[in-house]
Amino acid sequence: MYEVIVIGGGVSGQTAALYATIKKMSVVLLTKKLGEHLRESIGILNYPGMLEIDGLTLSTRMKEQLRSNNVTVLEEEEINRIVRIEGGFRVYSENNAYDGATVIIATGASPYKLGVPGEDRLLAKGITYRGISDAPLFQDKDIAIIGEGSTALEAAQSARKIARNIFIMSREKGFNAPDHLIEKTLTYPNIKVITEVEILEIHGNEHVERVGYKRLGGIHQLPVNGVIIERGHKPHTDFLRGFLELDDAGHVVIDYKTKTSVEGVYAAGDCTCVRDYQYAIAAGHGCTALLKASRYLAGRKTLKDI
Ligand SMILES: Cc1cc2nc3c(=O)[nH]c(=O)nc-3n(C[C@H](O)[C@H](O)[C@H](O)COP(=O)(O)OP(=O)(O)OC[C@H]3O[C@@H](n4cnc5c(N)ncnc54)[C@H](O)[C@@H]3O)c2cc1C
Predict the structure, then answer these.
(1) CATH architecture for the domain at 2-110+233-305
(2) Per residue in 62-97, pLDDT tens?
(3) How far is the CA of 144 from the centre of ligand 1 (A)?
């Protein structure tokens, strides 16, 4: 039985696994893909200690760090079930099962897509799903922010001192956000709102050039250099339903110590109810989760119950 099983190989899971070796705990990291989202990030401007780094380079460095610390990493292991067993938990993938005294869930989340032509092709060529961290990429540009919730408005506020003109495109008549946030966002002169839109296509050859949309029966084109899509995120937690507490949107409910509703199980990063999607937060969570798991195990060992 491993002392800790980490599920998910993003920044949060990799940090947890790294700290397990520092704590001299036996650990296995099980993941679909190692550093999946990291490799998609073009320019990371907000990771401590790095003026700017691309996701692939950071991913390669983290992988190297795991290797030099002899962490067992098993890729292509998609976990689909967890059950309690005596002394811990059994974690199942399609073909294998692993036993751990503690489990750290770090399976991340994926942004909801618009599903329109141009969206996949122009990803990282002017399109991003991360308004708050990617806003610096839009210096003096005209941009569209597509979304109707608080994160769309917050992204607009983050970008307002960077971008030239910001157009928030909402499919609703207004926004699903607190009144004070809406009112404050709309006070900035370079933020404009286009409501009741249906996005049809994002156009551009090598880079975003314009957004095609339908409004009140007419077809329109909005010339922009960038598009931030803020339609929320789907956490990768379906396999946890019935095992531990999830919130309405499917995020793992944790407390400030990263503890879940099941003793001995911790969660970290984008899959949690914290809902702030940042590498620095994921790393911090991964570290906290491992330290709490280690302390929990130390307590149990004292009680001779594993
Ligand atoms: C395009 C893009 C750009 C971004 N840019 C920035 C930025 O500049 N700065 C910043 O701070 N943040 C940025 N982010 C946000 C950042 O990527 C996330 O906050 C961070 O990746 C969260 O890390 P995580 O470890 O929680 O989850 P993830 O990175 O999503 O990792 C989850 C891991 O779990 C694995 N997994 C999922 N389900 C299972 C399962 N059932 N079994 C096993 N493994 C599973 C996946 O393969 C993946 O390896 C960006 C995100 C994207 C998509």
Answers:
(1) 3-Layer(bba) Sandwich (3.50)
(2) 999 999 999 999 999 999 999 999 999 999 999 999
(3) 24
